Every structure is written in structure tokens, then in C-alpha cells.
Amino acid sequence: MPLKISLKPGEKFVLNGAVIENGDRRSVLVLQNKASVLREKDIMQQEEVTTPARHIYFPIMMMYLSDKQNDAIYEQFVVRMNEFMSVIQSPEVLAECVAVSRDVMAGEYYKALIRCKKLIVYEEERLK
């Protein structure tokens, strides 16, 4: 099933590891086959990795954008997820952590990223 992406002027996105920037007008792209795509709002830079949940998101993002298996990045994810889960008491959040882990193990990295955003929101609410 094709993926339709509407882009704002100047919006950046990553397509299979290549950073692409839209021109000065709105545009629509239709991807006809499977590809790793992240919009600018979903891309996390290394300097933004400042909290435990963000330490989970970043390696998932890197696995999603990588074209090959990287055991070191996967191990980083596992360590950070275990650390995060060891201090969480909310059953709902723990269930979300398990779902993120399940998605990562299944290679469903984009789904894991979307779920991990919920962990970031939860963490931000707790840190306030």
C-alpha cells in the first residue's frame, strides 16, 4: 500500500538514511514501496537524548533508519529499557514498555517509535 507524505515548504525528512528537504512550496510524495521514512518532527538529534525515555527512543530510531542489524545499538536499547522499567510503577506504562520491546523484537521499529513517544510524554509529565 502506497504511503502519501504531505510536506510543508522547507520541511526535512529522512528516506532510507538520506536527509531530504522540501523546496519552497507544499508538495506531496507517494512512496510506492516499503521504505524507512521519518519526518523532521520524529527525528531526534544526539544532543536531544537527555532523559531515560529519550535514551530508549534514540536507538530505536537508529535501528529503524539502519539498513542492517546492529547488535550494539540493540544492546543499548535493551539496557535503557531495563533501566527505565525498573523504576516505573504504573501498570499502564509498564505494559507500553513491553509493547515497545515486542515491536522492536519483531523488527517493527516505526511502531515502536510511535509507542515510545508515549513514554516520553509520560516522563515529561512526571518531571514537571
Q: Can you put this structure into words, describing what you see?
A:
The chain is α+β, with helices and mostly antiparallel strands and 128 residues long. The protein folds into 2 domains: 3-42; 46-127. The chain contains 4 helices and 5 strands. The chain has helices spanning 52-65, 71-87, 91-105, 109-127, and strands spanning 3-7, 12-15, 18-21, 27-31, 37-39. Strands 3-2-5 form a 3-stranded antiparallel β-sheet, with no helix packed on it. Strands 1-4 form a two-stranded antiparallel sheet. A hairpin with a 2-residue loop joins β2 and β3 (18-21). It starts with a strand and ends with a helix. The mean pLDDT is 93.
Q: Determine the number of helices (DSSP H or I, runs of at least 4 residues).
A: 4
Name the helicity range.
40-55%
Note the run of SSEs as H and E: EEEEEHHHH
Distance between the termini: 41 Å
Mean pLDDT comes to: 93
The domain tally reads: 2
Short description:
With 128 residues, the chain is α+β, with helices and mostly antiparallel strands. The chain has helices at residues 52-65, 71-87, 91-105, 109-127; strands at residues 3-7, 12-15, 18-21, 27-31, 37-39.
Which features would summarize this protein structure in a list?
single chain, 128 residues, alpha+beta, 2 domains, three-stranded antiparallel β-sheet, two-stranded antiparallel ribbon, 51% helix, 16% strand
